Amino acid sequence: MATVDDGRLPQPTGPLLSDAPAPAVAGRRASVRGPLVGGAVVVAATVLLAVRDPHATGSYGVCPLYTLTGVWCPACGGLRATHDLAHGDLAGAWSMNPLWVLAVPVVLALWGRLVVLRAQGRPSRSAPAWAAWAFLVVIVAFGVLRNVPALAPWLAP
User: Is 12 left (phi over 0), alpha (psi -120 to 50) or beta?
Assistant: First the structure.
């Protein structure tokens, strides 16, 4: 028995999956996932630093810059400062790396702002170019100043 082909394709009767709007909640959940996973990794690393003391010589290795040159880098003492902060010892953390102690609340506030904006489905703006340059100037200046012998009692770890 022969069928007649009139050239028309059958049309679907319901909405197409590609035309259906994606649920807004699923999109927001996906955009928040990255910052939350990053935050979980940082929390896990902080717990590790709280449990295993970086004040013990060689427990986390050594700073390559300090080992090779004897110059304190801007990050020297950061692990010890994080350990001290995790234990609530602000003075100890400050003595290890004051720049990191000042940076932690800023980093946490920026991370929290990113999570809230993404959860609300609002776009997050990137930092202006001057902020990156200011960040670089502060880090380099701190690295230089902590190696000035007269300032070493306050800035060197």
Answer: beta
